[in-house]
């Protein structure tokens, strides 16, 4: 461009950083062009200072661990000087510190392109390639470093690792083909140690774990592959199905949703999603009903869940356990004992099933069986205070059953309400009224029974005393009343320990 045509000079025409004014005069350069050169020199100097400022800020922020802020300054430095190999190398270092090794690779390659003998960048790129499992490309970088620096110890060591990874990966593949899955797992251990970002090694080991039934280990290997491969819907779906088969429906739902985020039209993921969603809703609602003590509704949902997923044993086992719990809580004793027994056969090491069956046995007045179940539950979960308390209570009830049983005296169940207790009392009190009997022997027997009937009514209609009975104590036992300040009284007007002619007046309330 001619200076006289527009009064400006475009930057591409300037091929030097500074131009001495005196040289300009000697070449016959016009005063206007010299002025333009001076302006451009100042702009270039300002730009250089700005780039240096970004690099310095980036260095400080990187040292302080403020990686995102440091990265923004290195972006600005690269934009300001796209041909500076060292700036690319420094930005790659930030990417690596952030765990973004994929983003670091292009910067390292660009640095090597700008300066082919930059060994630090080539060595760093080789390290990343080895961790990714790209052993052939990694070998080329390490060999290139050794050509320029034959004694480079890091390059020598990494080259040996490349050979070891190649050998172990080949051996693992052969072991897998001959179905030596544990042998393959052992060889892949070394591969993954040196190439932790290689998805193929983790996928192969996950498959081996699956084939030997170690599902949790398979999950742990598959999880990282969702990030090591782009758009890895297959891994998300496989993880979802694995979690589903392990009975972890929440995790299963979470992972299949990740698959659909990548492609909402993925047919396999959507089909599995519908199944998991339906089952999860039933199980979650059932647990909500239990929290609300809506046990019948909870049972209905758990029975529905068994129909929704009859093939996976874990869900059937869990459903039976929770139905057992609901039946025990709702005091349907015979059904509870039956279902809990079935659940115990499916899951004999589950202390919660034994606890719930023990509670049903207590309601059914089978105290020896309750003690047995609580004892076993305590052995399985010795730190659980509920099991300890339950065992003590069952033992007290067993001991009490061999003495005076207030429920048996009135002929009512342990879950009888106050109205049922009073009704039974009235019936038995009238039946065993001493005035109904003629002989002295019959009257004495009737008197004894009536005292027990009256005592049972007193205890079972008093919430505090009934609570003690249910805890295995006899509130009318003199041994239990010592120091308690509670004195026995009688709901009828006669001295039960006297003799002679009695005038009975009963208070039926």
Automatic annotation (TrEMBL):
Q: What segment(s) does the record annotate as region Disordered?
A: 462-492
**Pfam families xref list:** ANAPC3 (PF12895), DnaJ (PF00226), TPR_16 (PF13432), TPR_19 (PF14559)
- Coiled-coil regions listed: 377-404
Q: PROSITE patterns of this UniProt entry?
A: DNAJ_2, TPR, TPR_REGION
J domain segment(s)? 405-473
Q: What's a GO cellular component annotated to this UniProt protein?
A: endoplasmic reticulum
The residue intervals holding the TPR repeats read: 51-84, 85-118, 119-152, 233-266, 351-384
Q: Which PANTHER family match?
A: DNAJ (HSP40) HOMOLOG, SUBFAMILY C, MEMBER 3B PRECURSOR (PTHR44140:SF1), LD25575P (PTHR44140)
The protein depicted here goes by the name DnaJ homolog subfamily C member 3
Organism from which the protein derives: Xenopus tropicalis (Western clawed frog)
Per the UniProt record, the lineage of the source organism begins with: Eukaryota, Metazoa, Chordata, Craniata, Vertebrata
Q: Which gene encodes it?
A: tm4sf5
